[in-house]
């Protein structure tokens, strides 16, 4: 049974200019004191086409974690624009927050991010080369997609077994490679492509 | 009979393996397969019972779902108290759930609104021991144990008050164990397995009582579960899948001799589950017909792989009702409502059916008292079969009852504490943490949070703790130390306050002039007839000196439900002829005392007679080797205790009491012996003396002088109490003759002829208003700030003068003074 359950993730300062750092206020509950730290990561998906363009914006250790409810703010710098394919700069993409314990990922929270020009003129006639300074990032905070994985929370020896027991289908979280063509401005259309069972494996 | 299939109770089409109705009848749990895990769901009962509630969208149907089991859940069972839910599954785990009452998240993060959990159930214990799928779990009567069985061929008995402690692993089955049931009296547990046997195990030593194989010889191991059931009166055990003349049956096994002469016949395929109605019934009395008292009977539901359900009454030869093709697949589990009029049935096809009977169909259910009376007449008094109400007033007859009571009290305390904590944490979650509102904290969280760098240069954030958790109450808080039992603590307070209300005795120095108008102080702690003491009080009395409960004495601070329901559990039904054991005699002694206390005259009994005493109605053939072993064990503990006791506490306060008995024997070992005539008790009263002196201590030198009837003022004779402490003297006068005095370096106290007890400081200040004793004083003693008074009616009271509390309030010592003893040593346990 999961020792840590995420109660809420609040997206702070949203929407904000592209270059502003990401800020998430994460509250979680821990049922038993953890011997080791949790590792949280923010991953920015640069392109739906390939994992190659995923950027780990930051990774922090969180600890010590006694039993109880806790919260912290996870702040990470904006993605490096030079690593984002030009064709993917504007439009919908995804930012992921993952947490691992003993190297095992047990939760993955995905948010749709819409990058667009607030300026109507630019929106109508976007520059060929994206102007990141003009882009605004809007995270669809109301609709997080949460995937939970069973992991081994106890001693190290059993860990192998737990990993073996994991459903391989779930091993790679959001199947972003299936994300439809860009320019689809309504993120609401995408959820059907995400694992439907994601809510059930609490 | 009404039949209903609430379609909204489902696991999205996945099989439901188990169903259990909460003891309070407001909800029920189902267990089975989830999407990619095991699933436990708690449902609201009222939409099942009432159509209006079913239609009302404001009434939630699903209360909580838990997907924590990694694989299919085979069994869900509520504890008898309803506080816990145990679930066992294919992931080899048993999880114990408890409701978290603080306001938790109303929705699961990331889920849409419809999945909101109305109630929050938190897993408080995970029990790991089985090496294969857990097939069935069962709570013992009164929730002392939890049993689980598995395809690893074993049954594991867990200590339910101290999870995850394992008390025993029952080995002996050579096939998958697929069902468990406790004897309602708590003496046995039965298991049924694929090895074509049904085994009955004793809870006394967790050894095999009997293995029944004959009715199962023809069985093929093809059912998913074999849920057997014991009748509420304890007489019958009914198995799942058995065969008779190549037809599937549910075998009836009689408790008496484990005879297998009867069965329930008629199902076309193997019986998967049998469940007795928790009620015992009697024939409905029709108006006008002659009120013939009929035999009480039981009611039993049988579910089968043939998808049909039958309901039987033990007084009828044919089933009361058979419902064919209730489901598309095999029936997996059955649960009765506590009132005995409804059943929920679940099936492998993922649906649930509810049957509602009327009293005309089943009969009049006996009340819990009547049921308990039936139990007691058959099995004697024991813990498992007594109702809550009876237990709180019952005379403690064995250590288990005492333990149970303490546990209850502790639980209540813990609960209160937990509630307090929970409310506190609730307010802190929603409201403030350390005086700061959550909003303020959130605003500044980024600035305030502690961020460090680890050795390898990584960022490390220390999260802000916003609420402590109650991590369930199976914690070590249980029984680690019980300084005083709860009821004592309670009476202590109440008696304390009642004493404060006592009118001041006129003999107080400053109200001396008004002595004439003095009225006898009317105390709330009023006089009690000497004979009437064995009632509610004696129960507490036995719990305090602990002389009667060897196991309590040997491990005073720990409750070990191990050996819990041993012979004393149903002590009347266990005879140990020829070789009396001290402990069993003790328990018999109490009972005997109770039986005879109104008759005041107790006949002499020797050890042999009393231990082989034959009130029993259930003769038990026991392998002699076992009883011998048990005896050795018990004798050993008694001996240990004897050795241990005198040395146990250096503050032991030896005190002699002489009982007016012609044949007074000495020596402590006689204390528990019943061999001499027992008498009605009246302890000696010190006669009034003209004057006496008492040396309290020599360093500092302190002594008390008493002079009775020194003067008379207005017709009232006054007695003088004088105290000298290292040359400093004080004196006071009292309006009644002083019978006895006692003192320590902290207090001086005297007891007067008028039954008043006065307590002074060593400087002469009255520390307490005069206390009216229930009967004349016999012995008075002081140690430190404690004052102990023993009255002629053998009630003991102890006060802590400094804290101004009653430590022991009028506890009757009858039970330990009965018999023939000349000396009693009171351990000073405070």
TrEMBL record, chain A:
One GO CC term on file: chromatin
Compartments reported by the entry: Nucleus
GO MF entry, a single one: histone chaperone activity
GO biological process, one term: nucleosome assembly
Claim: ATP-binding is one of the keywords in the record: no
Keywords: Chaperone, Chromatin regulator, Nucleus, Transcription, Transcription regulation
Pfam families: ASF1_hist_chap
Coiled-coil ranges per UniProt: none
Keyword Nucleus listed: yes
Similarity comment: Belongs to the ASF1 family.
PANTHER family named among the record's database cross-references: ANTI-SILENCING PROTEIN 1, HISTONE CHAPERONE ASF1B
Identification of the protein by name: Histone chaperone ASF1B
Gene source species: Octodon degus (Degu)
TrEMBL record, chain B:
Alphabetical keyword list: Chromatin regulator, Nucleus, Repeat, Repressor, Transcription, Transcription regulation, WD repeat
The keyword Nucleus is assigned to this record: yes
SMART domains: WD40
Role, per record: Required for replication-independent chromatin assembly and for the periodic repression of histone gene transcription during the cell cycle.
Region annotation (Disordered) ranges: 407-431, 500-539, 569-625
Stated name of the protein: Protein HIRA
Annotated ranges, domain CAF1B/HIR1 beta-propeller: 1-212
Residue spans of biased composition, Polar residues class: 422-431, 508-518
Gene coding for it: LOC101572750
Domain Protein HIRA-like C-terminal span(s) in chain numbering: 764-820
GO BP: chromatin remodeling; DNA-templated transcription; regulation of DNA-templated transcription
Gene3D superfamilies: YVTN repeat-like/Quinoprotein amine dehydrogenase (2.130.10.10)
Homology family: Belongs to the WD repeat HIR1 family.
Chief subcellular location: nucleus
Compositional bias (Basic and acidic residues): 591-619
Localization per record: Nucleus
GO MF term list: nucleosome binding
Any one cellular-component term (Gene Ontology): HIR complex
Domain of life (superkingdom): Eukaryota
WD repeat start and end residues: 66-98, 127-159, 170-201
């Amino acid at each position: 049974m999961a020792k840590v359950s995420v109660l809420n993730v609040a997206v702070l300062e949203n929407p904000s200019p592209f270059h502003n750092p990401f800020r998430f206020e994460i509250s979680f509950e821990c049922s038993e004191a953890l011997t080791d730290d949790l590792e949280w990561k923010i991953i920015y998906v640069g392109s739906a086409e390939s994992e190659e363009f995923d950027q780990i914006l930051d990774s922090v250790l969180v600890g010590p974690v006694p039993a109880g409810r806790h919260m912290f703010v996870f702040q990470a710098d904006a993605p490096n624009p030079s690593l984002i394919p030009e064709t993917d700069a504007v439009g919908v993409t995804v930012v992921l927050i993952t947490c691992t314990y003993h190297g095992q990922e047990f939760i993955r929270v995905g948010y749709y991010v819409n990058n667009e020009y607030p300026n109507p003129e630019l929106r109508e006639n976007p520059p060929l080369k994206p102007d990141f300074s003009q882009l605004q990032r809007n995270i669809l905070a109301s609709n997080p997609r949460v995937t939970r994985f069973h992991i081994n929370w106890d001693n190290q020896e059993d860990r192998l077994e737990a990993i073996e027991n994991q459903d391989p289908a779930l091993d790679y979280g959001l199947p972003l490679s299936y994300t439809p063509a860009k320019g689809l401005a309504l993120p609401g259309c995408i959820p059907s492509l995400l694992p439907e069972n994601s809510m059930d494996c609490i | 009979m009404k039949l209903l299939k609430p379609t909204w109770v489902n696991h999205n089409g996945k099989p439901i393996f188990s169903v259990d109705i909460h003891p309070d009848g407001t909800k029920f749990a189902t267990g089975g397969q989830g999407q990619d895990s095991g699933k436990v769901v708690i449902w609201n009962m009222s939409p099942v019972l009432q159509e209006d509630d079913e239609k009302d969208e404001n009434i939630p149907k699903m209360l909580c779902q838990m997907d924590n089991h990694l694989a299919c859940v085979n069994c869900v069972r509520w504890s008898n108290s309803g506080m816990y839910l145990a679930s066992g599954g294919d992931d080899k785990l048993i999880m114990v759930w408890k409701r978290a009452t603080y306001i938790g998240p109303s929705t699961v993060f990331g889920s849409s609104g419809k999945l909101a959990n109305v109630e929050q159930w938190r897993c408080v214990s995970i029990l790991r021991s089985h090496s294969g799928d857990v097939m069935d779990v069962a709570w013992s009567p009164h929730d002392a144990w939890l049993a689980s069985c598995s395809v690893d061929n074993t049954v594991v008995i867990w200590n339910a008050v101290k999870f995850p402690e394992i008390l025993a692993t029952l080995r002996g089955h050579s096939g998958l164990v697929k069902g468990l049931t406790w004897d309602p009296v708590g003496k046995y547990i039965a298991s049924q397995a694929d090895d074509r046997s049904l085994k009955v195990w004793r809870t006394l030593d967790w050894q095999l009582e009997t293995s029944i194989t004959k009715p199962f010889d023809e069985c093929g191991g093809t059912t998913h579960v074999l849920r057997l059931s014991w009748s509420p009166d304890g007489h019958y055990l009914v198995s799942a899948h058995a065969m008779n003349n190549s037809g599937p049956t549910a075998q009836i096994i009689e408790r008496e001799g484990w005879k297998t002469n009867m069965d329930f016949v008629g199902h076309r395929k193997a019986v998967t589950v049998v469940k007795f109605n928790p009620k015992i019934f009697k024939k409905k009395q029709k108006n006008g017909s002659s009120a013939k008292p009929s035999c009480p009977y039981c009611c039993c539901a049988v579910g089968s792989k043939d998808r049909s359900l039958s309901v039987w009454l033990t007084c009828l030869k044919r089933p009361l009702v058979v419902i064919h093709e209730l489901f598309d697949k095999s029936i997996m589990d059955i649960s009765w409502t506590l009132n005995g009029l409804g059943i929920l049935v679940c099936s492998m096809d993922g649906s649930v059916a509810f049957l509602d009977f009327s009293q005309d169909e089943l009969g009049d259910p006996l009340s819990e008292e009547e049921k308990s009376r039936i139990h007691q007449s058959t099995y004697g008094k024991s813990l498992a079969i007594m109702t809550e109400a009876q237990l709180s007033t019952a005379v403690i007859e064995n250590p288990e009852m005492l333990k149970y009571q303490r546990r209850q009290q502790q639980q209540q305390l813990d609960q209160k504490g937990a509630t307090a904590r929970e409310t506190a944490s609730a307010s802190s979650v929603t409201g403030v943490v350390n005086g700061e509102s959550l909003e303020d904290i959130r605003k500044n969280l980024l600035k305030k949070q502690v961020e460090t760098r680890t050795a390898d240069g990584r960022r490390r954030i220390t999260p802000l703790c916003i609420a402590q958790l109650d991590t369930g109450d199976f914690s070590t808080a249980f029984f680690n130390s019980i300084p005083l039992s709860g009821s004592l603590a309670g009476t202590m307070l109440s008696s304390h306050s009642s004493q404060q209300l006592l009118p001041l005795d006129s003999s107080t120095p400053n109200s001396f002039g008004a002595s004439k108008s003095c009225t006898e102080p009317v105390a709330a702690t009023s006089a009690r007839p000497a004979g009437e003491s064995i009632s509610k009080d004696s129960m507490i009395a036995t719990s305090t000196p602990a002389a009667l409960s060897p196991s309590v004495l040997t491990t005073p601070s720990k409750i070990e439900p191990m050996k819990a329901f041993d012979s004393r559990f149903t002590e009347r039904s266990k005879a140990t002829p020829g070789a009396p054991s001290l402990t069993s005699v003790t328990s018999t002694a109490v009972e005997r005392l109770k039986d005879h206390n109104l008759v005041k005259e107790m006949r002499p009994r020797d050890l042999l007679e009393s231990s082989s005493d034959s009130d029993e109605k259930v003769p038990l053939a026991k392998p002699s080797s076992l009883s011998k072993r048990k005896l050795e064990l018990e004798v050993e503990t008694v001996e240990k205790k004897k050795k241990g006791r005198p040395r146990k506490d250096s503050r032991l306060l030896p005190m002699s009491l002489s009982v007016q008995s012609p044949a007074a024997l000495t020596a402590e070992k006689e204390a528990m012996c019943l061999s001499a005539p027992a008498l009605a008790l009246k302890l000696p009263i010190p006669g009034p003396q003209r004057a006496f002196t008492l040396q309290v201590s020599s360093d500092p030198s302190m002594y008390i002088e008493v002079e009775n009837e020194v003067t008379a003022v207005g017709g009232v004779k006054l007695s003088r109490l004088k105290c000298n402490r290292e040359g400093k003297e004080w004196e006071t006068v009292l309006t009644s003759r002083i019978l006895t005095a006692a003192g320590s370096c902290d207090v001086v106290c005297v007891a007067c002829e008028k039954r008043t007890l006065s307590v002074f400081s060593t400087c002469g200040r009255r520390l307490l208003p005069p206390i009216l004793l229930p009967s004349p004083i016999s012995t008075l003693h002081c140690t430190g700030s404690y004052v102990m008074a023993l009255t002629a009616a053998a009630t003991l009271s102890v006060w802590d003068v400094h804290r101004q509390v009653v430590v022991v309030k009028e506890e009757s010592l009858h039970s330990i003074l009965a018999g023939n003893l000349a000396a009693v040593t009171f351990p000073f346990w405070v």
